[in-house]
Amino acid sequence: MLPKVFIDGEAGTTGLQIADRLRIRKDLELISIHPDKRKDVDERARLMNMADAVIMCLPDDAARLGVSLVTSQNTVIIDASSAHRTAAGWTYGFPEMDKTQRAALRASRRISNPGCYPTGMIGLVRPLTGAGLLPVSWPVAVNAVSGYSGGGKAMIAEFEEGGTADNYRIYGLTQKHKHVPEMKRYGRLDHAPMFMPSVGRFAQGMLVEIALPLWALPGKPTRADVQAVLAKAYQGEAFVKVPSLADCDALKGLEPEACNGTNRLELYVFGSDEEVRLVARLDNLGKGASGAAVQNLNIALGLDEDAGLVA
Q1: 3-state SS string for the chain
Q2: How would you classify the pairing of strands 141-147 and 194-200?
Q3: Which residues in 41-62 are b (16+ Cβ under 10 Å) and which e?
Q4: pTM of the predicted protein model
Q5: Closest among 218, 216, 230, 225 to 275, alpha carbons compared
Q6: Domains parsed from the chain with CATH numbers
Q7: What is the separation of C-alpha 104 from the centre of its chain, rounded to a whole number of angstroms?
Q8: Which of 57, 116, 248, 259 is catalytic?
Q9: Are 149 and 156 in contact (CB under 8 A)?
Q10: Which of 77, 177, 227, 302 has the fewest CB atoms below 10 angstroms from its CB?
Q11: What is the rounded distance in angstroms from the CA atom of residue 304 to the CA atom of residue 285?
């Protein structure tokens, strides 16, 4: 019997992309709620408790309510919201983050999908703090830009239906962004990073940047040292790529949409031995959302990890 998967919030931006990835699969069964019953709590609960896995694609409060409806001890929940990313009892769904993370995901029944920006930031920072190259007390600043699809239906409508003439917009000006706690925890930092997000006039794609003045770091690491730590951390990974310094030097620029439609995360080390500009590139709706959810689903259900995904 094929494992059954239910998407709670299938009509949303992330839910639709997950459904597209799962609907063509032959190794699982996607079960859906009738459109007329999407707000029927009893019907949602029935479907969730008959499923082997539920993927929550809902706002935070609705996701917390959805989790409370699952009484089956055998149902795996993958929450794509930010409601449980630092919550006790939940496993963080970034398989490549640590060598033990896949085993933790296979054993878990509660998996929290990472945020899109944190995926890039943690991908860059965690290996460096883990290796002792970057002090955990370092005042990290994260500058990032995303396609407008990251803002959900309201922002998509704003940009696509003439609600704004903005080509580029910074936001999160209160420094209270919901992604910061997971960046701090899983980046292994003592202090919350300063996060400076922005949105551009393109639908999908993302760049996440961190500047490191190597001359100020203890041990005075070189640019090659930084690249080597990242390359070692992700050696053999199908979805995380660390270009060589030569490949980085051959680039004249980096545009945010090149990973769209994939589950790929690219980690670049630009600059010199005095200072480096770390850049992560990913699809905010791929490795930053729906692709990550499918990858976590595959691991949790014991399926091929790359099933339904493009590297």
Answers
A1: CCCEEEEECCCCHHHHHHHHHHHCCCCCEEECCCHHHCCCHHHHHHHHHHCCEEEECCCHHHHHHHHHCCCCCCCEEEECCCCCCCCCCCEECCHHHCCCHHHHHHHCCEEECCCHHHHHHHHHHHHHHHCCCCCCCCCCEEEEEEEHHHHHHHHHHHHHCCCCCCCEEECCCCCCCCCHHHHHHHCCCCCCCEEEEEEECCCCCEEEEEEECHHHCCCCCCHHHHHHHHHHHCCCCCCEECCCHHHHHCCCCCCCCCCCCCCCEEEEEEECCCCEEEEEEECCCHHHHHHHHHHHHHHHCCCCCCCCCCC
A2: parallel
A3: eeebbebbeebbbbbbbbeeee
A4: 0.96
A5: 216
A6: 4-114+288-300 (3.40.50.720), 116-284 (3.30.360.10)
A7: 17
A8: 116
A9: yes
A10: 302
A11: 21
Tokens representing 254 are 């980096």
Structure tokens, 94: 């970034």
Q: How far apart are CA 159 and CA 19, in angstroms?
A: 24
pLDDT by residue for the chain (311 residues), tens only, comes to 899 999 999 988 999 999 999 999 999 999 999 989 988 999 999 999 999 999 999 999 999 999 999 999 999 999 999 999 999 999 999 999 999 999 999 999 999 999 999 999 999 999 999 999 999 999 999 999 999 998 888 899 999 998 899 999 999 998 888 999 999 999 999 999 999 999 999 999 999 999 999 999 999 999 999 999 999 999 999 999 999 999 999 999 999 999 999 999 999 999 999 999 999 999 999 999 999 999 999 999 999 999 999 99
Which tokens in the block code for residue 203? 């639908």
